[in-house]
Design goal:
Helix 1 crosses helix 2. The longest helix is centred in the last third of the chain and has 17 residues. The radius of gyration is 15 Å and the shape is globular. The chain has 166 residues and is of the alpha/beta class.
Length: 166
């Protein structure tokens, strides 16, 4: 199922991420798709904030993988943020051990996941951000499981109750 929303600013994209972060569970994998400058890192930073990550959360473009400690419903959770932009061959995904991070105690965010398509778990959330520059963003949540549908609907309805844009 696809759920579409609009974000008018980087701050709003971050807020959508924060709401998503509050709905994530240990073991979740979120694939972030979008052009350079679309807002993937803003969304990821919001997710980190929603999971209680403190301190800066820059894009791991050069380190490839960054790990953070967070909280999810009162329990500690490990947040792994990957940026696979610099990988050029699918075999590199295996070499850096991407699959090892798909663990029960971890929430995994992956920017530029296309190169890792064959390694990603089937039950994942794909978030596609369309647009760049100063224009509003269309954010599309692609779900493949009913549990994701419920969570995304909760996030959208929460924003509606606050009177925020959808």
């Amino acid at each position: 199922m696809d759920y579409r929303i609009t974000s008018m600013s980087a701050e709003e994209t971050r807020e959508w991420g924060k709401q998503l972060g509050r709905h994530l569970r240990k073991g979740d994998v979120v694939a972030l798709i979008g052009d350079l400058g679309a807002g993937k890192t803003s969304l990821a930073q919001g997710i980190g904030e929603g999971l209680g990550v403190t301190g800066p959360m820059p894009s791991p473009t050069f380190t490839l993988i960054q790990e953070y400690g967070g909280q999810n419903q009162g329990a500690k959770v490990r947040l792994v943020h990957m940026d696979l932009y610099r990988l050029q061959h699918p075999q590199e995904v295996e070499v850096i051990g991407v699959e090892e991070f798909f663990a029960e105690d971890t929430v995994c965010l992956i920017e530029w996941p296309e190169i890792a398509e064959d390694y990603l778990p089937e039950n994942r959330l794909v978030v596609e951000i369309l647009g760049s520059g100063e224009q509003p963003r269309k954010i599309v949540f692609h779900t493949y499981d009913e549990t994701w549908d419920v969570r995304i609907k909760d996030i959208i309805h929460f924003r509606e109750r606050l009177g925020g844009p959808q």
